[in-house]
Amino acid sequence: MDDVAVDDATLDGNAIGGLLASVFGTEMTTATGTCGSCGAVTLVAELAVYLSRIGTVVRCRSCYSVLMVFTEIRGVTCVDLMGLASMS
Amino acid sequence: MAGTAVRGRLTWQTATVGLVTDETPKVRTLRLEVPDWPGHEAGQHVDIRLTADDGYQAERAYSIASAPGEPLAITVERLDDGEVSPYLTQEAQPGDQFEVRGPIGGYFVWEAGTGGPLLLAAGGSGVVPLRAILRYRSLAGSSAPVRLLYSSRSWEDVIYSSELDLPADGVKVIHTLTRSQPPMWHGYARRVDIRMLAEVAWPTAERPLAYVCGPTSFVESVATGLVGLGYPAGRVKTERFGATGQ
Questions:
Q1: Element (H, E) at B225
Q2: What does the mean pLDDT of chain B come to?
Q3: B216–A22: do the CB atoms touch at under 8 Å?
Q4: Buried-state track B32-41, b at ≥16 Cβ within 10 A, e below 16
Q5: What total of structural domains would you count in chain B?
Q6: Measured between alpha carbons, how far is residue B23 from residues A55, B89, B90, B100, B209 in Å?
Q7: A-B interface: how many C-beta pairs under 8 angstroms?
Q8: Count of helix runs (H) and strand runs (E) in chain B
């Protein structure tokens, strides 16, 4: 994907440690995620994170594919892990 | 299930503002009193959530400025277009309350047993979690050698300057001032570059561990530079603050 790049608005997985802990019930930034598109294996803390008012998008640092999307609707967090091959 | 707290699960708690200290014209340290705070590690952060009268909520992550064992404190830089930092740096008074959850993070942390040598690299308010590491190093009686390379716009923007002027034994603080320098300044006066890193960073033969924190562009350039100098990527821990001041 060449329409997305790491710019100054890009955060990393540290920034969503609280969100992930509330969703998964445990510390997740030291877990590793495997990209379903390119196969890159990366610590969650090092993934590229984009925050906006409508939600949180997590992308692969190697190929920028979307790995995870979090949206909060009326206090309920919706989680889409479609781009992840695995997380451990 | 509403209102049921699962033991050990991260939940929002009420924090009460305690002592407030101005660090620079744009940066403030707030001590937070949180009942049943479980303690934290050096380098972790908290999430803070503010709720407006109309129910609108804004949430941001802030690094913990205090060492494990010290009262919980955060240091916040005011971003003029921010939703949370203007309140925390200009309006919050002792006794005010808001929601906090934490401690958060297991990656950007340092334990005394990990040892060193440590290279800490900070851009602007990225110094906050590194300060927690420095204070913890002293409290834990660690003798791990540390170099802190700290990039600020000007001397007035240096956070914790009085503390960093008197570093503990084995700690060296190297400043670079990127926009303006006081008269007679003999230190670095440019953005961190590969030449500066080559002069400041521990040789890779000493198996150093690096912690890099600051605005995203700062972290990207320092981490890339260190890897270029031969640091294994796994020995360079990074935390990006986005587009904050530097």
A1: helix B216-228
A2: 94
A3: no
A4: bbbeebeebb
A5: 2
A6: 33, 10, 13, 22, 28
A7: 71
A8: 5, 11
Question: Do the domain assignments include residue B60?
Answer: yes
Is the same domain home to B68 and B150?
no
Chain A positions touching B46 (Cβ under 8 A) are: 18
pLDDT, tens only, B79-92? 988 999 999 999 99
Which residues are within 8 A (CB) of A1 and not within 5 positions of it... i.e. 6 or more apart?
A63, A64, A65
B227 and B198 fall within a common domain: yes
> Could you tell me the residue range of the domain that residue B214 belongs to?
112-240
Give me the pLDDT at residue B16, please. Answer: 98
**Residues B95 and B116 grouped into a single domain:** no
Taking contacts as CB-CB distances below 8 angstroms, the residues of chain B near A8 are 215-217, 242-243
**pLDDT tens digits, residue range A51-65?**
988 899 999 999 999
Is 90 exceeded by the pLDDT of residue B132? yes
Closest-CA residue of chain B to A8: B243
Does B61 contact A14 at a Cβ distance shorter than 8 Å? yes
Q: How far is A49 from chain B (nearest CA, A)?
A: 10
Among A6, A25, A27, beta carbon nearest to B220 = A6
Please check whether residue B3 lies inside any domain of the structure.
Answer: no
pLDDT confidence of A8, banded at 50, 70, 90?
Answer: confident
Give me the mean pLDDT over the B200-217 stretch. Answer: 97
CA distance linking residue B152 with residue B191, whole number of Å = 9
The model carries a pTM of 0.94
Which pLDDT score, from 0 to 100, does residue B1 have? 38
Q: Find residue A70's DSSP bridge partners.
A: A56, A79
Same-domain pairing of B140 and B208: yes
Distance CA A12, CA B46 (A): 15
